[in-house]
């Protein structure tokens, strides 16, 4: 049985393990202090939101999302991060997390829910192709620093 809901204060340590797994997958370095800052932003819940998935009381999946204005439509929801512990994969956890973000998007009246992933992330893309539609966009990052 998988339970889905808002991240709780007692999830801090388990959340960081999953967040570090997510960042390692995408080869993105975050200093230790960055995890604490991210956690505090999630706990405020004013701009960035976090949802967890628990199996037998253990946090096994996380997702982070945010709403933002768009010029041509109502607010959009960007699902920024999604990560499921390797041992819990294949049990529908990622799909449940996406559906929970979709419910939050509908409740807010957002016009769109979207996310990005690496082209070679075939495992995740197999799920994404079932629950969403690929519109052909590629992302470019301009270095600001």
Cα-to-Cα separation, first versus last residue: 45 Å
Q: Work out the strand percent.
A: 15-25%
Given helix and strand content, the structural type is alpha+beta
What share of residues is helical?
A: 25-40%
Q: What is the CATH architecture annotation? A: 3-Layer(aba) Sandwich
Overall CATH class? Alpha Beta
Q: Which regions are unreliable across 5 or more consecutive residues at pLDDT < 50?
A: none
Overall geometric form: globular
Number of DSSP helical runs: 4
- CATH T-level topology: Aminopeptidase
Number of strands: 5
CATH superfamily: Gcn5-related N-acetyltransferase (GNAT)
Explain what this protein looks like in three dimensions.
With 145 residues, the chain is an alpha+beta fold. It has one domain: Aminopeptidase (3-Layer(aba) Sandwich). It contains four helices and five strands, in the order E-H-H-E-E-E-H-E-H. It has helices at residues 12-25, 32-44, 93-108, 122-131; strands at residues 2-6, 48-55, 58-68, 76-84, 112-114. Strands 1-2-3-4-5 form a five-stranded mixed sheet, sandwiched between helices. A hairpin with a 2-residue loop joins strand 2 and strand 3. The longest helix is centred in the C-terminal third of the chain and has 16 residues, at 93-108. The radius of gyration is 15 Å and the shape is globular. The chain starts with a strand and ends in a 14-residue tail after the last helix. The mean pLDDT is 95. This is GNAT family N-acetyltransferase. It holds the Pfam family Acetyltransf_1. One of its GO terms (molecular function) is acyltransferase activity. Residues 5-145 form the N-acetyltransferase domain. Its EC number is 2.3.1.-.
